[in-house]
Amino acid sequence: MKKATIQLSFDSEKLDAIKHYTTEKGVDLQAELNDALQSAYTKYVPKEVRAYLEIRSMSEPPRPRRAVRQAEISANTLMNDEE
Questions:
Q1: Residue 33 CB neighbours (<10 A)
Q2: How far apart are CA 50 and CA 5, in angstroms?
Q3: What is the pLDDT of residues 40-78, one digit of tens each?
Q4: Which of these, 36, 34, 30, lies nearest to 15 by C-alpha position?
Q5: Where do the structural domains in the chain lie, given as residue ranges?
Q6: Are 28 and 22 in contact (CB under 8 A)?
Q7: What percent of the chain is predicted at pLDDT more than 70?
Q8: CB-based burial of residue 18 (10 Å sphere; 0-12 exposed, 13-18 middle, 19+ buried)?
Q9: How far is CA 5 from CA 8, 34, 47, 66, in A?
């Protein structure tokens, strides 16, 4: 599945404190936040919807290669042709 970025506001002093204490205890704050979101997802999204999304994510076709890759191939071809 495609990933999304979440932006939220939180008291900066509290954020500094939680960063300090999670680091001190060797806890990954990002993992803790991901776990909290996963828990909320499981709690609030109906089981049928979660099952549907799971099936849908497994059947998504692979994405086409980006244009950047094609540009690299074209540049390499031009360089090889000049030799």
A1: 13
A2: 20
A3: 999 999 999 999 999 988 886 666 666 666 666 666 555
A4: 30
A5: 29-82
A6: yes
A7: 71
A8: middle
A9: 10, 11, 24, 21
Distances (CA, A) of 74 to 56, 70, 83: 35, 6, 15
Place of tokens 């549907």: 52
Tokens of 76: 């390499």
The sign of the CA dihedral 22, 25, 27, 33 is negative
Structure token pair of residue 9? 């506001």
Helix (H, G, I), strand (E, B) or coil at 83: coil
User: Among all chains, which residue has been given the structure tokens 């540009």?
Assistant: 71
